[in-house]
Amino acid sequence: MTVTDRFAGRRWRARFQRLRPYLLVAVFLAAVGGLTWTVLETPLLGAHHVDVRGAATIGAADVREQAAVPDGRPLARLDVQAVRERVEEIPQVASVEVRRQWPRTVVLDVVERRPVARLSGGDDVRLIDSEGVVYPPAGKPPRRLPSVELAPGSGPRSEALKEVAQAVSAMDGSLARKVREVRVGSRDAITLELRDGAEVAWGSADHADLKAEVLAALLAREAKAYDVSAPERPTIVP
Question: Tens digit of pLDDT per residue, the chain (238 long)?
Fold first, then answer.
């Protein structure tokens, strides 16, 4: 190697040392750009699987169809809010959480409405959930749910159903199964008909937890009628 070659080598190495930071930045930016393109623009990290959890009465296939998650859509660009809104249009769904599970799965955690009663009247069965929402069953309706009858003049239907839902939701399963019908005359005039024929004056939905507790204790005594509208002063008619 000549002196000229050695001198040229040193100059090249010196130039490389000066350019090295810029080269490293260029390599870094290229890597970031490639990763960003892979995440945002390619199906490599896309939605290829939809995992439905928590659906008991609703078919998982029905939930997937309603969710309409675009196959292969990059997870980073998935409109989670739109998917949630579509699933919550299913009448039996109370809420749903939509999660990205990397690298290629969308998880739908479904919470179904919990029926506490069924609405009387008409050929079609309608269920009432714990919030007073009326909806059709997804399959065979649960057995031994109290039926609800709203009398004319009982007030706004939605408010009356909320009152009923609050009353029935306060009961444990054993007590609720003893109720055949809930009749609503007005906001302050809810009456229960038990399966053994006895009637219960429930009153309003106020203090529902206390009323349910008092009624459960009163049922230890057989009677024709019970009154828990004032739960601190309950009465019975033998």
Answer: 554 555 555 555 555 566 556 555 555 544 444 444 444 444 555 788 999 999 999 999 999 999 999 998 888 889 999 999 999 999 999 999 999 998 899 999 999 999 999 987 666 789 999 999 999 998 888 888 999 998 886 667 888 899 999 999 999 999 999 999 999 988 789 999 999 999 999 999 899 999 999 999 999 999 999 999 999 999 999 8
Question: What CATH number is attached to the domain comprising 105?
Answer: 3.10.20.310
Give backbone dihedrals phi and psi of 180, rounded to 5 degrees, phi first. Answer: -85, -40
Q: Which of 201, 195, 130 is nearest to 164 (CA)?
A: 130
Same domain, 107 and 122: no
Segments in 59-207 forming alpha helices (H): 60-67, 80-87, 157-169, 173-176
16 and 88 together in one domain: no
Give the CA dihedral 135, 124, 66, 130, nearest 10 degrees.
20
**Cis upstream peptide for 103 (omega within 30°):** yes
d(C-alpha 222, C-alpha 233), whole Å: 18
The domain in which residue 152 lies consists of 115-237
Number of domains comprising the chain: 3
**DSSP β-bridge partners for residue 134:** 128
